[in-house]
Amino acid sequence: MSTPLLATFDLIALAASVGKIVFLSFIVILPLVSISVYFERRISAVIQDRVGPNRVGVPLTLLGFKKDWQPFGIGGLAQAAADGLKFILKEDFVPAHVRTFYYWLAPCLTMVPALLTCCVIPFGSELDLSFLGLDEPIKLVIADLSIGPLFTFAIASLGVYGIVLAGWASNSKYPFLGGVRASAQMISYEISLGLSIIPVLMIFGELNLTKMSAFQDANGWLLLPLWGEGLSFSRWVLLIPIFISFCIFTVSMFAETNRLPFDLAECETELVAGYHTEYSSMKFALFFLGEYAAMIIGSGLAVTLFLGGWSIPFAPYLGLDYQAGATPWWLGLLHIGCFFAKVFCFIVFFIVIRWTLPRFRFDQLMALGWKVFFELALANVFLTALLMWWFPLK
Q1: How far is residue 214 CA from its own chain's centroid?
Q2: Are 117 and 156 in contact (CB under 8 A)?
Q3: Least crowded by CB within 10 Å, which of 4, 100, 111, 297?
Q4: Residue 371 belongs to what H/E stretch?
Q5: Within 13 Å, how many C-alpha atoms sit on residue 29's CB side?
Q6: Cis? peptide before 59, omega within 30° of 0
Q7: pLDDT of residue 6
Q8: Neighbour-count burial for 144-163, b at 16+ CB within 10 Å, e otherwise
Q9: Cβ proximity of 164 and 109 under 8 Å
Q10: What's the rounded Cα separation, in Å, for the pair 200 and 204?
């Protein structure tokens, strides 16, 4: 009698895991890439005081609007879909001088790690589906690992192989220089990125991202300790190293994702397009998707570590705090919406910085990583240890 029950349980668990993977990868992240591209175009147009995409979109005349009236830029909403269709229909040209196998492999090695890292980030608390016959609520994380941040950094660091291979396999001068720059840049800033979260892990005493989010829901976010144990003097003192960690983490994420002002691996004024100069069609699209997917995952990790993850601001005061095993389905959906709202705000911040600051020189980029952030992140670890010794957490 136990075998059929076990098989049923395994089938339900497998279906839940597949559902979370499909939801997060294909219903959230990939569409969010398109939405990010659209908002990047719109925000950059506002910053530069010009007209953004406003033609490809809903046929407004069918909705009763005047032909030339475009409320809220709705005419450009299908621009992202048009970009995707354009990549699919372009000729997939492979130059004769490339190293073919590695040339094809490089885009995959860029895209896959960016998507794999999302599996340990909790995008919600739990979802009660008892009305569907499930006895226990579903945890809204694909893999609830006890080493979440370490797994994320380990997988994300593999992305550099795709970029280096793209530069080397293209067998061309500018892509090769772009690949070398990218490897130096990403390896350098991964050190600062890893050191920046050590104070966070010291405060939590935990490597499980789900438990970190639940703790912040009950005791205040790390950067907003305004309820629960966050009101203690120790937590307010620890805001100093936490703010330093947040700044280092955020800037290092810009460097890791090759975003302006740190896009030295693909800057068009020096390297044509850098490591993806020889790529076209969907292979170029994979590099494009990989960059934005890494930006989304980086934003999700920053939100989880510093901004409460799926936690709703002032949840205990509003009666919306998380209760393990007793969270109603509507609150679970609210947690999902809160998490992605924070991620979207972080992505908008990424976009605004890109269109605001000038590009660094490569020597400035490396000097900032090795002479400023590395030392500052290391000193911040010692500062956190001293403050936790003088003002121990309860």
Answers
A1: 20
A2: yes
A3: 4
A4: none
A5: 29
A6: no
A7: 46
A8: ebeebbebbbebbbebbebb
A9: no
A10: 6
Q: Which helix (DSSP H) or strand (DSSP E) does residue 324 occupy?
A: none
Contacts of 210 (CB under 8 A, 6+ apart): 122, 139, 141, 144, 148
End-to-end CA distance of the chain: 49
Q: Is 319 helix (H, G, I), strand (E, B) or coil?
A: coil
* CB neighbourhood size of 268 (10 A): 10
Query: What's the confidence (pLDDT) of residue 5?
Result: 47
CA 325 remoteness from chain centre: 28
Rounded Cα distance, 275 and 290, in Å: 14
Amino acid at site 356: T
Residues of the chain with pLDDT under 70: 1-10, 12-13, 16, 57-75, 131-134, 268-271, 394
Dihedral angle of Cα 288, 302, 150, 254, to the nearest 10 degrees: 40
Asked if 40 and 351 touch (Cβ cutoff 8 Å), the reply is: yes
Phi-psi region of 73 (alpha: psi -120 to 50; beta: other; left: phi over 0): left
At position 200, the amino acid (one-letter code) is: V
pTM tops 0.70, yes or no: yes
Strand partners, 232: none
Cα–Cα distance for residue pair 373/358, rounded to 1 Å: 19
Nearest CA among 346, 333, 251 for reference residue 297:
346
Q: Please, what sign has the CA dihedral across residues 69, 72, 76, 81? A: negative
CA dist 241 to 202, 238, 292, 378, Å?
11, 6, 29, 11
**In terms of residues, how long is the chain?**
394
Residues 6+ apart with CB under 8 A from 64: none
Q: Distances from the Cα of 106 to the Cαs of 186, 254, 293, in angstroms?
A: 16, 21, 16
Provide DSSP, 109-136.
HHHHHHHHGGGGS--SSEE--GGGT-SS
Map tokens 């080397």 to a residue: 168
